[in-house]
Amino acid sequence: SLTLGIVGLPNVGKSTLFNALTRNDVLAANYPFATIEPNVGVVPLPDARLDKLAEVFSSAKTVPAVVSFVDIAGIVKGASEGAGLGNKFLANIREANAICQVIRVFDDPDVVHVDGHIDPMSDIETINTELILADLQTLEKAVWRLEKEARTKKEAKPALDAAQKAKAILDSGRTLFSAQKEVDVELLREHSLLTTKPFLYVFNADEGVLTDAARRDELTKLVAPADAVFLDAKVEAELLELDDEESVRELLESVGQEEPGLYSLARAGFHTLGLQTYLTAGPKESRAWTIPQGATAPQAAGVIHTDFERGFIKAEVVSYDDLIEAGSMTAARSAGKVRMEGKDYLMADGDVVEFRFNV
Ligand code: GDP
């Protein structure tokens, strides 16, 4: 499955956040046979629709979609110079599908900031610089090779142009993710570059920042078009210790949050990875399934079982809203809200589906 790699400067709260991510029990509860790796944190994607579906279908349980985060330990400054730990750091990032940078915006005189003061832009630039330098090294070799190739093979020209363009963007200090409109990243795929990966920013904040809409807005703009999430990692850890809803609500209220930050983090992570869900419902379970945005009906069926994709005939689809309005599948059918979709159908978020297939 796709993963987000958590990176950040020392002392920004990565471990605190990561511990909170690994302490929720979604994996154990719903995926008893999954191997739980020590450096992977799996969070459920909150989805209130599942409880509603479970009511309508008298499902025995609900199974949410999940988002996986990988803890990428290691030093950051100088990583691109290729010293042992730095190499490992870059190799781990290369394996992740998106980069989730934790940035400290909490005040605490007891926690030393590596650069002496809180400066989100400078934190972002420090990480970006290492990734940019690593990509530049990769591209320098690639351009050299592609130039040679392009002399004898015309087909190599677009790849060479893209690599040169990418190099110029990186030379100007920008990531390829932030410049994706200027260069065709498909043509760069073979180089496994780091800065083409989508970025997500987690601002580890204190109450002062969490309750300051203008400050949050400013930080959100700073990282756009990447997603920004605001949470207090220490509070997230405390929330997991609480077992009654009232205390949870009180603690959230005290920091001006409407829901746990892990919820927004899960949603943003899912979005950053380019994923969406569709739903199935029945007496056994109501469940959200993960598919890439733009997946077709047979591809969606394949997520349940590869045989479903191979033997795909039709998908019986009703939108969640129509289904809930009708009150039952039978009522939705008589209201003409249930559609039969073929193999070219592009799945929409909130589709409740039953697949017809040959085995
Ligand atoms: P890492 O080096 O990025 O993994 O940072 P840690 O998670 O180890 O956190 C460094 C220190 O900051 C620890 O003493 C944490 O308790 C503290 N810390 C982490 N998150 C917060 C936060 O949101 N608020 C405050 N005040 N302290 C935090």
From TrEMBL:
InterPro entries: ATPase_YchF/OLA1, Beta-grasp_dom_sf, G_OBG, GTP-bd, P-loop_NTPase, TGS, TGS-like, TGS-like_dom_sf. ATP binds at N11, V12, G13, K14, S15, T16. Residues 274-357 form the TGS domain. Residues 2-204 form the OBG-type G domain. Gene3D superfamilies: 3.10.20.30, P-loop containing nucleotide triphosphate hydrolases, TGS-like domain. Keywords: ATP-binding, Magnesium, Metal-binding, Nucleotide-binding. Its cofactor is Mg(2+). The keyword Amino-acid biosynthesis does not apply. ATPase that binds to both the 70S ribosome and the 50S ribosomal subunit in a nucleotide-independent manner. Belongs to the TRAFAC class OBG-HflX-like GTPase superfamily. OBG GTPase family. YchF/OLA1 subfamily. This is Ribosome-binding ATPase YchF. It comes from Amycolatopsis minnesotensis.
